[in-house]
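# nightly structure sweep
# worker-07 picked up a monomer target from the shared queue
# config: single-sequence mode, recycle default, output format = structure tokens
# input follows
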Amino acid sequence: MRIPWKRIIHYFLAVFVLASCGAAPVTPTRVETQDIASLHKPTPTRVEAQDIASLPSPTAPPVASLGDPASPQTPAGVDLDVTFISRDPIYYMYCVEYPDDLPQLCPGHADDQHWPEEGELVTFTAHVVNKGTSASPAFDYEWAIDDTVVLTGTLPGLASGAETTSTYQWVWAHQMEGDKVLDDHDVSFRADPQNLVAETYESNNSIKDRTNALSFILTITAEMYAEYNMPVDPIYPYSAEDWLQKQIAMINTNLAAAVYPATPEGATVRVRIDTIQIAESNPEPDFHHDGGWFIDRDLRAGASAYYDPATDIDWGLVHELAHQMGLIDLYASNIYQTSVYVLNQNGRQTNFGFEWPRGGIMGGGDIYPYNDWNMYDSHTAGGLSSNYGYRNGYYGVYQYDIPLQNNFLVLDSAGNPAPGVTVTLYQRTPGLWDWTGHTGLDNTPEISGTTDDAGIFPLPNRPAGGGAVTEIGHVLHDNPFGKIDFIGGNNRFLVKLSQGAHEEFFWLDVTAFNLAYWLGDTAEHTFVLNSHVPTAGAPAAPVLEPVKVAGYDIELCWQPSATPGVTYTRIYRANPPDYLYTLVAKLPASQTCFSETLPGGWYGGFVYTATAVNSDWLESGFSNAAWAPRLVNPTAVTSLPDGRSLILDAQNGFAVLEQDAAGHFLGNLGSVHYHLENSAYMAVDANGHLLLNHPGDWYVGRQSVRIADVELTPVLEIGEAGSDPGEFSSPAGVASWGEACTYGGPYTDDSDTLLLAHYDGSFDGTQGEVGSPSGAMLVEGLYGQGAAVGYGDRLSYAAEGNLDLNQGTIEFWLKPDWNGDDMESYTFFEMGYEWFNRMRIMKDGANNLRFMVWDDDTEYGVAFNVGDWLAGEWHHIAATWQGDEIALYIDGLQVGTSEGVTMPAALVDKLFVGSAALDPQYAQGVIDELRISSTARVGNSATCNRILVADSGNHRLQAFDSLGNFLSEFGEFGSDEGQFNNPAGVAVDSSGRVLVADSSNDRIVVLDFDGVSFTYLDAYTADLSGPTGLAVDAAGNIYIADTGNDRIAVLSPDGSFLREHTAPNDGSGGEFSLPRGLAVRPDGVIIVADTGNARVVRITPPHIVLLPLVARLGY
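# output follows
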């Protein structure tokens, strides 16, 4: 199999990745090997069927030595170990490549032979090693086929560590149908069958393999061979080969145990070890064996998170070897809540994510009725069995087994066919990637329609990209999913059923279609959907109010149904991981609130809905949905201009949640992989980005400030651990000062400008730099005119004085004549003629915008995919460098950085704009507002939005520009003016003053800031105790999360005490407990992170003014 560019797949005999496994598959690196088994492949000999006993008996084989396996702990004595049985000939696995993600045989491999022919003579070779410390006597052996002994003999004694072999020739007796084996046989070899030799271990004297099993070649380093010769427990033999065979035996045991309706006799395929060899690196694949693995770490000693000492099985290795059998990771179809952009009828997120609730060892599927996650699930067992009789080489193509026609039969809440139901199916969208590479579902359906009078909706078949026909019986035809993703990523639908005000959602994936096919519905299958669509005459549904959440406790209230005669209200909850609706309460109609404690376990929140039931037991459709997260440790809130609130709950998995203006929880943001476990402060800067303190997390110790967009896509990270300027120790509060940044133009000359070309009537720079065009033309630009550089055109400037290799920026606007996904290369800037010592900004053939630099022997660079760019659209591009770091920006956002970079040693004579220096690569677009600076900046980043950080552990405040460049610091440890003791929250008022919650000094420090440096002004106390969060309103009033006093204190701009709030007034009840964060909306609503109560609550106007009390220090 060959890997398509940019697809992450599991490749037989090629590169697999499982970090926890600590081992690797065989990859194409040629090495010299010390063979434990002969890899000789003799020319096959065809013989006529005859009595097996009449075949020639093997001669006594030579004796080889593997070296002394003994160690001081090895038990004394003899240990005859049958290590593996090889078969000769093996022939070829299928060589498959995936152009356009569809399988086809590699060129020149259509006529490969994959199995021996019926009647062909094959040779089995058993390998026996004396793993003991003492020499063995001669010993008997026996070969058996299907448990019938067919050959016996005696082998000479073996010295300690010596190996010998025994061969048996067998007429290939399998029934064949082309390249498919139709039946099973077993071959076994036993040393010392009568137990005449006293041995330390008797458990490893025999091996039994299925003759048509998939064959593995396992390679192990000499060091690891010695390690695995030492068992984790002396009850096991001192044998690396035994440990490897134990893993294979467990695979076969679990395959046999995978009994499901589609596999009533278990999965029918088996595996065997055909070769074990020692090599110091991954050997080159031979494409004869069906799979392989390279072991260079001890999986039993911490290199794998999946090793089980109780069974001596590494389940990570078992999992990876399943990929060698062509099996997919079912978790590839999991979908985060945050990646589902499908909206419900209220215009809110559906919040329906998916993970497998009872998945097996392949990360998904269903193992019911079993409870052991190490089992193979029903889909994996069925998929593998559908490949029965064939050699390996294909990956995941059993997912192509889909009935030719598929239908939904929708039943209403009374179990009757439901006509007129709108059926809508959403699917993962190619190119809709989040920053972790996870693909999402957009709000555009792939399939929609209405059930007929019988409640039937035929699913249309969508084009499958031309389809595919495999050599192992699987055919990709047009089907509801379209082109099946053989990795599994797009093979899941979110299905919506709606009628009137009712709507409900559920997940349906390709495994259900496959199982229907394997159970016999190859031509047509109908999925019966027991829905909650209301019947005629059903009452109207209740209307849910915003759910209140405190920790794991929720309170759900509603407005009753407007229909008379309602007797009951039913509450349904859709739970993670699969979000199936479950009835959780049946309440009398007089009750309008419901409380419960949410289940623990899975990430994500819970979706509630309610129905009304009348005296005739007719049930309404679903109410509006209410999403309820679990709140664990909410510490910060911030308000957005559109009325939404963002909540930082660092222990809540996804860390940031959002609410609408009415208080409805909307959903999680971002990814669990952003890792904000220790973060407690958050703010929105002038650019509309989130600022988040990051005092390390569960995975990395970096002390920093993270900047993300409001969807929590990372933009920038500032700082490292330390006490030098720009470094942090326990960074805390964050705030923004100044106006929003712009990256546009037209730019103006300043002291940092080296070259500025407006291209308005001239190619020359504003300081007289001569632009030398060759074919380039002045055309309409973004600001006035721009430079059009087409194929074969060039535009150059002198390099001297126009580029500083120590630090700087190249930025410009680009309007391409091409789409970003055209797989072509274009160059926009280059300095340098040779391969090394140059700089280049380009788009490559993989659709990545790249900023590359070379020193005299190394290439460095950053890249970002621009496959979504369209011809005729303007984009701003900036590349910066300073110190050993380079960065790339697109439309004002940082999209990549690289550290440890060495810049070119010297300038050459020219800078090329819109083309490469020598290569035939041209911009083929319009460039406008080219600016090269002697400092790292983007647009007006040198003067705009400042980022202020309370560096709590270093007892100071630090200021950075919008690109993260350090500007200044203020403060030291102490309690006097200009000193801090664990500064916490930071806020900026409308006059530009900076307010700092000097937490351990129980005061608010007021500073002046001019955009670069701070000046002390004043300090307010107001009987504060450990203040943390701060906020200000439009009038400059100061709102303080007075954590130690369990209150919110409000001061006037001059520090006069105005009032305090000790409890919310939104109906939540109870007083504040250790509030840490707060935000004030323009309408005066105060949103409070009531941390001690694990809730987010509100204080709404009018506010009660209490007697003033204030203490002021200094100014």
